[in-house]
## 1
Amino acid sequence: MAAFSSLTDRLSNAFKNLRSKGKLSEADIDGTIREIRRALLDADVALDVVRSFTARIRERALGIEVSEALNPAQQVVKIVNEELTDVLGRGVDRPLNFAKNPPTIIMLAGLQGAGKTTLAGKLGYWLKESGHTPILVAADLQRPNAVTQLQVVGERAGVPVYAPEKGVQSDGGEAVAAPGETTGDPVKVARDGVALAKQKLYDVVIIDTAGRLGVDEVLMKQARDIRDAVQPNEILFVIDAMIGQDAVKTAKAFDEGVDFTGVVLSKLDGDARGGAALSVASVTGKPILFASTGEGLKDFEVFHPDRMASRILD
Ligand code: GDP
């Protein structure tokens, strides 16, 4: 995974020195912990997360017993793998929460440029491929191009889009037009989109919402208003894995602002340091449900903390 390639190299180096050891001394362990700490900090993992992570590893590594199955270096790698899985998932690895009575409502939130609109297409495509009948709702009325962009994404994914303008195109023929007149009210758009889904039996509604360049209260209130109006089953916070140390601040602000239910890490294909993304689950206690790994429709995967930890340590 490009976003973690440097971290992977650094961690693998940190373990290298342990390989020749038959038994680990406290100094060996501390040396390795120091390297792990530096690698994580250089990858932009938040300081608090690094501290507690390395403290747990140190404690467990000091307790390593001689084992027939694994040498000390392998045991340290195993401990790091387990702790990394915990940091990435807080013990939670859950699927998307579907409504008992459709439609399932998924709202996307995050900063502008985080990858929400792109994700709406990927998620729609993935759901369609797994037998669902999703519809995308364009409730980002902030950016002039956002509605059109979602329509393009929907067309590419073969998923209908509900938008507040007339002439909105749909799933190859059937016109899914707004029932009322054009409106600039994102809450109304979201509500109307859900009503349309109920009427036409779309079973998943994906609502794209506005993002700003920085966290702001007007945006947050708007997102809350949409949330309160449609009561989503999932509020997915989309975060650009490349935004560095700002990730923690942004995630906390959205957590307080809209109390999201899950995280989507986007742009994990980028080659900047993606470590901040590793802090997000830990800092918010919310599970990462998906990863976005490119601009294409299929550059998308269900996130499993244990698999991601193994890939980072690969
Ligand atoms: P939004 O403002 O949150 O809706 O963000 P967009 O979906 O418009 O994405 C912003 C930019 O990031 C666009 O140029 C996308 O093509 C790009 N993008 C989105 N997701 C990914 C990803 O996973 N990887 C890469 N490399 N680019 C992405």
## 2
Amino acid sequence: AKENGRNCFQFFTTAMHEHAKARSQLEGALHRALANQELRVVYQPIVGDNRLGCEALLRWHNDALGEVSPVDFIPISEELGLIMAMGEWVLYQACAQARAWLNKTQQPFFVSVNVSSTQFKRQNVVALVEKVLRDTSLPAECLTLEITETVLADNSDDIERQLEQLRVMGVGLAIDDFGTGYSSLGYLKRFPLSKLKIDRAFIKDLPDDEEDKTLISAIISMASKLNLIVIAEGVETPAQLALLQQLGCDYTQGYLHSKPSSAAEFEAFLLKYQTR
Ligand code: C2E
Ligand code: CA
Ligand code: CA
Ligand code: CA
């Protein structure tokens, strides 16, 4: 039994060591990812009745590690403080791209960019957005920032002030993943939000799940009374789309319309959408 215990301990430390090694390999690679041009931005349509937008999403491909999911590398980038540079880069890419699409279509259009709570805490997001909008000559109305409840839960006057300035500029503010996390309805009152994104967790069992149907219907009617534009995330089936439209949801996003794709592929979607 003693022998066994030792083996077990040895196995455990080896596993921990392997884990630490993998993690430090990831961190090292992540430090170089931006400079090595390993990051790219993909775009996913956000489809409304006669309006189209898109969400910009980060992708990372590393030769040794392969394709790493943002679910894994974003939290580490936040810890390492790399998210500031990455966030600036995504914002710039997305705004420049949106400007180019605006020129092509002459139609109302918006791009939605995720901003992490670390950015709001450690960076002047207002100054950054002002600079990027100026450099890309994208109208503020064509940009939406997606923030999670973590940003709002911070309860900081500074963040509240930044959000207010962004709204005054005309930038849209969406609360992301609504209904998960530590949802407080108070956020909807306190912060100058313009959009609400219902998390996929509430969409995935539609149209069969009666409880989800009730929740979604309540969220949509509440949001519309608060003048918030509602976007449903993770829409995968025509039946989900039909139900959401029936409930008065303004926009839908999900694999049903398209997976996140390259700028060129999204552009094809955009041009097709326009002429439908
Ligand atoms: P998110 O902001 O909630 O983004 C939506 C996620 O849902 C994306 O995952 C998207 O690919 C996925 N999705 C879209 N439609 C469907 C669908 O119909 N079914 C399913 N199952 N999934 C769908 P992705 O791209 O892997 O991103 C994961 C998360 O990583 C994002 O969640 C966001 O929190 C974070 N992230 C991605 N890019 C950025 C970024 O540029 N900055 C920051 N701060 N976070 C980012
Ligand atoms: Ca998002
Ligand atoms: Ca989301
Ligand atoms: Ca989510």
